[in-house]
Write a structure and sequence with these properties.
This protein is an alpha/beta fold. Helices cover 30% and strands 16% of the residues. The strands form 3 sheets. Strands 1, 2, 3, 4, 6, 8, 9, 10 and 11 form a 9-stranded mixed beta sheet that branches. Strands 12-13-14-15 form a 4-stranded antiparallel beta sheet, with helices on one face. Strand 13 and strand 14 form a beta hairpin. The longest helix is centred in the middle third of the chain and has 32 residues. It starts with 6 loop residues before the first strand and ends in a 12-residue tail after the last helix.
């Protein structure tokens, strides 16, 4: 590494399954830019979300805490302003901090430590998506239109949003390159693709032969599904109307196309970094909030602890990092301490309270480094009806629920999680150890009570705030284009010849 503190570019996609990327050994994935990051950096093969749902995952990631610790119970849970985030910590370490794109903040604070935010969010910042354990099918849940409307399109709302996010992020990198602020930067760019709808532009669809798009490897019939999976099927209106075989292939094809679209956006950001010379001292971190089931085990979307939904891509790249794959279990709560160490706080002395994660920088920079921490994940959202909890240690994953049967999978022998070993006496020690970790980590009864009380409060507030004059919490960004425009108090020649980046007079 160079002596100066590096810049940091974090790129987060939404609902990006690790196994949909070429660097994660998908044989048909067209993801050359993500693969190039991996080829010049470190791939974490066993990275996990701590909550397989958008908002709680992101709040947990930013705070370095499990979602239950900060009350992030579902997509309608408020992210308290009093919770320190990695944006606060990096800002306190004299980094410029800027957010571009989706973060799904809920509440009046739409910055959470970021010094600047260049776009509004794609989703509302209110309590509209509050979970309700008493509901079978929430009004905001996915449904069969996902499959009847899957395919290609020229434009949709998500394409409009992500194109704008990429444009503003690229412009910000140019501004950083020609700016006078000597502080290093942390630019967090967050795209909403490849989140459903399963639609993509024709050029991204055409990168895949339709017949090459593989079908799900595990086709679990509803009669063989665990109770929670059946509740998910009911929630998405798929229990009585599951997608047909061709609908499944079309949806998966369009999802792959959306992944390639995100890859193109990643390529645009990397091109500007290289063009401006900033790539030489910028750490690029690529990840997502959670994965996508894509029909595996008969399920779609997220909110499951099966590998497709909770295992995620995590790549850290820098010109001076050696390429390697890391097999240790890691998770998104590790990002906060990792970013602090990258920023120079190796002892984590700036932390005002303990965090749940551990820095990954040693694993990224030292091939002899190792770790053996368990990974924890939670699902407290609608459909779970009680805390649904997961712990993975080594290659064994354990899932606990007070209302559903326990599950235990040995991923070394059963990577597709088809055999529940919970009653196998050969796994008695693993069951005892992992169930003990669950009991140490969570007071399940108290957590259930807290979640239910939070839901009641927020559901009431949602109803009350919908009456009379409406006030939203949605972020309204300043128009950054104005800083490049001529105004009446300026002289044309002074304005037109300012802020020119890398001007060169052509030699004849």
């Amino acid at each position: 590494m160079t002596n100066s503190r590096p810049n940091i570019l974090v790129i987060q996609a939404d609902q990006l399954a690790a196994n949909a990327i070429g660097a994660y050994q998908n044989p048909i994935a067209s993801t050359p830019y993500m693969d190039s990051l991996a080829a010049n950096g470190v791939i974490f093969d066993s990275a996990y979300t701590n909550f397989p749902l958008c908002a709680p995952s992101r709040f947990s990631m930013m705070a370095g805490q499990l979602a239950s610790t900060i009350g992030a119970y579902d997509n309608g849970a408020e992210f308290p302003s009093s919770i320190p985030t990695f944006a606060h910590y990096l800002r306190n370490l004299d980094y410029q901090t800027c957010l571009v794109g989706k973060m799904h903040f809920v509440g009046a604070d739409q910055l959470h430590g970021f010094e600047q935010r260049l776009t509004t969010d794609i989703y509302p910042g209110d309590f509209g998506w509050t979970g309700d354990w008493t509901e079978v099918r929430p009004s905001f849940a996915n449904d069969t239109v996902t499959f009847t409307n899957a395919g290609t399109c020229l434009r949709n709302v998500q394409l409009e949003y992500d194109d704008e996010v990429c444009h503003r992020a690229r412009r910000k990198i140019y501004d950083l390159a020609r700016g006078n602020d000597e502080r290093p930067f942390m630019l967090f760019t967050s795209f909403t693709h490849p989140h459903d709808p399963f639609q993509c532009r024709p050029e991204h669809w055409d990168r895949y032969r339709h017949d090459d798009v593989e079908m799900p490897e595990v086709n679990t019939a509803q009669a063989d599904m665990d109770p929670y999976s059946l509740r998910l099927m009911a929630q998405y209106a798929l229990k009585d109307n599951p997608p047909g075989e061709e609908q499944v292939r079309v949806a998966r094809h369009a999802y792959y196309g959306s992944v390639s679209y995100v890859d193109d956006l990643v390529g645009q950001l990397l091109a500007v970094l290289k063009e401006t010379g900033l790539h030489e001292n910028t750490v690029v971190l690529l990840t997502t909030d959670h994965g996508e089931m894509l029909g595996e085990h008969g399920l779609w979307y997220k909110k499951s602890f099966f590998e497709e939904a909770c295992r995620i891509p995590l790549i850290i790249s820098h010109p001076q990092l050696d390429h390697r794959r890391v097999g240790a279990n890691v998770s998104l709560v590790d990002l906060l301490p990792t970013l602090l160490e990258i920023a120079g706080d190796r002892e984590q002395s700036s932390l005002v309270e303990p965090v749940a994660g551990h820095s990954l920088w040693g694993l990224a920079t030292d091939s002899t480094s190792s770790r053996d921490y368990p990974v924890y994940a939670e699902n407290l959202a609608e459909g779970s009806t009680t805390p649904l909890l997961m712990v993975k240690q080594g290659q064994v994953k354990y899932v606990y629920s007070a209302v559903d049967p326990e599950q235990l999978f040995d991923l070394a022998k059963d990577p597709h999680e088809q055999v529940n070993q919970i009653d196998n006496p050969e796994y008695g020690d693993e069951r005892e150890t992992l169930s003990g970790l669950v009991q140490q980590q969570w007071d399940v009864e108290t957590l259930a009570s807290d979640v239910f009380a939070s839901q009641r409060r927020r559901l009431f507030l949602r109803e009350a705030l919908a009456r009379g004059r409406l006030q939203d919490w949605d972020y309204k960004p300043v128009d950054e284009l104005e800083q490049h425009c001529l105004r009446a108090d300026r002289i044309y020649s002074q304005w037109a010849y300012q802020d020119i980046l890398d001007y060169r007079f052509p030699k004849t």
